[in-house]
Specification:
The protein is an alpha+beta fold. It has 20 helices and 26 strands.
Length: about 575
């Protein structure tokens, strides 16, 4: 089957291909590439189509669709494999701190070039971070900008292959926050020779097929971009192949399409129309897929949990900007009303793992999780006990009305849970549990929900954490007062909670080098505050249940071959490394 004939894509896009061909983004004619040389990806966008066609700027705010469309074209300084706690140098060879962790010097790899043939060097790296630092001190309309401004005093290209970062304060974790791409942490270096003359960098689309934009150091060029499909073709003049650092990827083309609903993605991969989909989420669905289609597998094969553990343990969040959640006794009551075992049974057929901390259950974090367990038992975090919840509600002045709903001062306690599509099987269960306990709860999941949560305009939210992997600091930092932004200021640190004592402990941890023995005690003290205050309601570890089809491509990441996570939509662009490892089935 030839993709140039659009037989495959016609089926994926519901017959809309012919009308889309007339668009300006489709002007470039495409080479004929066989299906067996094409990787087809179904991305679960939060709307039926890509909403940001022609926006290839990785720092544009509200460009969520870049995750599943073109982000993996870009290459980072370093990849990171959380499965093995392994650093993978890529555009850079290494880095080192000075004695007091106020400077970091990065050594770049020689011989790297942009896709237009221009050399990639230290000036590009320095320009990218300086651009973000200056923006964060001024307009603040680029992703990551304020974060860079807070941590970086200056960036200097010492020579063609050496970059020196001077920090605003000692920071032994700077590399993990700013240089290494993993999960949803990552920076994309931009070419100075293109971007330096752009006045409004936030409005810059970075898209022009005739000019070859977006320029990347990766082995790819964007050749088609519409609201229903993205075509990326391989460049055989890729620097890494020329230098012998890495082979060309085996696929000659990548096609990414909006996958639609969970059931739609299941149909597409079972029919061999796509090679990988976004997170299926519900264990019963992924179990049915792998049991009925032997060519499809998951990170854990055909066995529970049918996927790989992610850094994204999920919680039910309180919006602490709202006065209604000011009393920790109310937050504790909500915690007691959530039955995590029931969620696991209904949504995952028991193939999930409950959580009572915000840390993902990776082995390197186990000492901190274990130390927090007695605190969870002390404060009832993760415990389902409706009687204890009822007692707390009565203690703070609530009484059940004739309809069995909790009421205070003539007002029924009403909550709306905002969530996103990957959690829309969990949210209705939690909502119903709260209703059964006497809280007028509902949930909502729409294409706008992520933005509503990000801007702090929600009541409660169900979402995951984007924090620690091997050191507890990144997760703890999410709860510091600097993240208690006012409504309308974007952040994915949902709680917007603040406690001065907690801040002081996190500040002490931040000054210590990862692995310092003092961190365990300080983390335990911080978690006692977190548990006592019932900052949020932890629910479960998150597993990415991603089906991978071996009809055309093999050597997917697995428990036996855990060279990286299989998720392709991370803002780090780490799936770019996976694409180098995939092998043709024939």
């Amino acid at each position: 089957m030839k993709l140039a004939n659009l037989t495959l894509l016609g089926g994926l896009t519901g017959g809309l291909v012919c009308s889309l061909l007339a668009g300006t983004a489709m002007a470039q004619s495409l080479a004929n590439v066989a299906r067996e040389k094409t990787l087809v990806v179904a991305h679960q966008t939060e709307a039926p189509n890509y909403r940001n066609v022609g926006i290839a700027n990785p720092y544009t705010i509200n460009n969520e669709d870049i995750r599943g469309s073109i982000l993996n074209m870009f290459e980072p300084l370093f990849y990171y494999n959380s499965n093995k706690d392994e650093l993978i140098p890529w555009l850079a060879e290494g880095f080192e701190y000075n004695d007091d962790f106020t400077e970091v010097t990065v050594k770049l790899r020689e011989g790297v070039t942009w896709s237009d043939g221009e050399a990639f060097d230290a000036a590009d790296v320095a320009f990218t971070y300086e651009m973000l630092r200056e923006n964060g001190a001024g307009k603040k309309d680029l992703i990551q900008a304020t974060k860079v401004t807070d941590s970086v005093a200056s960036v200097e290209a010492v020579d063609e292959n050496t970059v020196k970062f001077t920090l605003t304060r000692p920071d032994p974790r700077f590399a993990f926050k700013f240089l290494i791409n993993y999960f949803d942490i990552g920076f994309q270096i931009v070419p100075e020779h293109v971007w330096k003359d752009i006045e409004d960098k936030a409005a810059f689309t970075n898209f022009d097929l005739e000019k070859g934009w977006p320029l990347t150091t990766g082995p790819w060029k964007l050749v088609r971009f519409t609201d229903t499909q993205v075509f990326i073709d391989r460049r055989d003049d890729y620097w890494a192949a020329q230098s012998g650092f890495a082979d060309l990827p085996a696929m000659e083309r990548i096609v990414t399409v909006p996958g639609g609903t969970r059931d739609r993605m299941a149909q597409l991969i079972s029919a061999n129309q796509v090679d990988i989909t976004a997170d299926i989420g519900v264990a019963s669905v992924i179990k049915q897929i792998v049991s009925q289609s032997p060519q499809i597998s998951t990170f854990s094969g055909d066995k529970p949990p049918y996927g790989s553990k992610d850094w994204w343990p999920t919680s039910l969040y309180f919006n602490n900007l709202k006065e209604k959640w000011a009393d920790p006794k109310l937050r504790h009551a909500i915690n007691y009303y959530v039955n995590r075992d029931q969620i696991s049974d209904i949504v995952y057929g028991g193939a999930s793992e409950s959580a009572n901390t915000p840390f993902p259950g990776f082995g390197s974090l186990k000492p901190y999780i274990d130390a927090a367990q007695p605190l969870a038992e002390k404060y009832g975090i993760g415990v389902f006990d409706q009687a204890k919840g009822d007692a707390l509600m009565q203690e703070i002045g609530y009484a059940k009305n004739a309809d069995g709903m909790w009421e205070k001062d003539g007002e029924v306690l009403t909550v709306q849970i905002e969530t996103i599509s990957v959690l829309d099987a969990v949210a209705p269960v939690v909502s119903q549990q709260l209703r059964q306990a006497g809280i007028d709860a509902s949930f909502r999941s729409t294409p706008e929900s992520r933005g509503i949560m990000r801007d702090g305009k929600f009541d409660m939210a169900m979402f995951g954490h984007r924090g620690s992997i091997s050191d507890p600091y990144a997760t703890l930092e999410m709860y510091t007062c600097k993240n208690q932004l006012s409504e309308g200021q974007p952040t994915l640190f949902m709680d917007r909670w603040c406690d001065a004592e907690f801040d002081g402990l996190v500040e002490q941890i931040g000054a210590l080098q990862p692995g310092d023995a003092k961190i365990l005690d300080l983390t335990t003290q911080a978690m006692e505050i977190w548990m006592r205050e019932a900052v949020e309601v932890p629910i479960q570890e998150w597993y990415h249940r991603i089906p991978m089809n071996t009809t055309y491509w093999t050597n997917w990441p697995t428990e036996e071959n855990p060279y990286l996570q299989p998720a392709f939509w991370y803002t780090s662009g780490q799936f770019g490394y996976v694409m180098h490892q995939l092998e043709p089935a024939n």
